[in-house]
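Hey,
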Amino acid sequence: MLPPRYSAPRATAPLDATLRLPGSKSLTNRELVLAALADGPGRLRAPLWSRDTELMIAALRSLGARIEPAEASGDFGPDLVVTPGELTGGANIDVGLAGTVMRFVPPLAALARGPVLFDGDEAARRRPMRTTIEALRSLGVAVDEWGTGRLPFAVHGTGSVRGGRLEIDASASSQFVSGLLLAAPRFEEGLRLRHTGARLPSMPHIEMTIATLRARGVAVQTLGPGEWHVPPQPIAALDVAIEPDLSNAAPFLAAPIVSGGRVTVAGWPASTTQVGAELERLLPRFGATVAREGDRLTVEGGDGIVRGAVPSGVDLDLGIGGELAPTFVGLAALCASPSVITGIGHLRGHETDRISALAANINALGGRVVEFDDGLSVSPAPLRGGLWRAHADHRMATTGALVGLAVPDVEIDDIASTSKTLPEFTRLWDRMLGR
């Protein structure tokens, strides 16, 4: 049965809202992996509870880790206590549509004894996995595949991985690098990893991985651009507080540019490796005023697009943080002059082909978007209501809600896809709008 359509609410007044957001998916799933490989029990405080993190928890449990909820922390669910166990195979792992699960867990499965089968949603079978499969084979791990470089495949772990030197092309996703680095301390010879491709997207995500390793006492050397060395060593147990998800803040902080008024996100970290930190720098390109006071980041949009304060278009290279691109493309569709957004070719291999999906959705509402290999050009055009297709992609759904603030009668076909990283999206969106 098809999910009910979500009628995107329009902005009826300038915004004046303060919100707190749940924990970072990227940090939660990295810390879950490291906690499962650590030398003792640890605790994750204020983790994200969403489909992606629950799939990671299930995957790690199936490999032998004990992961239990503790008392609640705040509005978004309990802490997690993780007790490592001997890694065992004989498991079937459902990755859903979670890139972190499909790319972080296979190197762990290589350290387990016995076969581990990986499969996921239909859309997950279209996401590139060749780099992980070939990397494990280069490290001496047997991998059976039926998806020609994609899901499903089976990793035949023997309880150890030799490690050593490895070259990969991670042009399609920085997650290929992160997945190997997270497991590398447990390899017999550690890992000396070199990226051979022309471009490596989303470097902040790799820096995040390195920071989480170093916080647990792991010595990680960056030898040069695209090259790292991780010696074999223990991974320390740790109690970790998870930062709020700053990428999930993007549509909320972009909303006052459309609706006018202001939105504040509380709990903003003083320093972070999250890509969402770029919002503070990039939103002023669309005419917003951004201010930070303590742990509160506030974006003011003046009168907003709906009251005639329409910003000029922008030229943005978002190679540093492609996950922010859907929000910025949604804003660009409402601007007064053309925009060009580049550096996002890797988004074609995300939950959906985000470049094509954004172009199709905006053009279906009367927009003028042209896609090319590495991005999109967006020209001004009056938009009308209509169906906005989420394509099972949380960021596509939230972008539809953002556009719907200014365009009447936008209907999102699957708002529940936001459960991937932000199950509370519609509740928080309504709270922001004073509904």
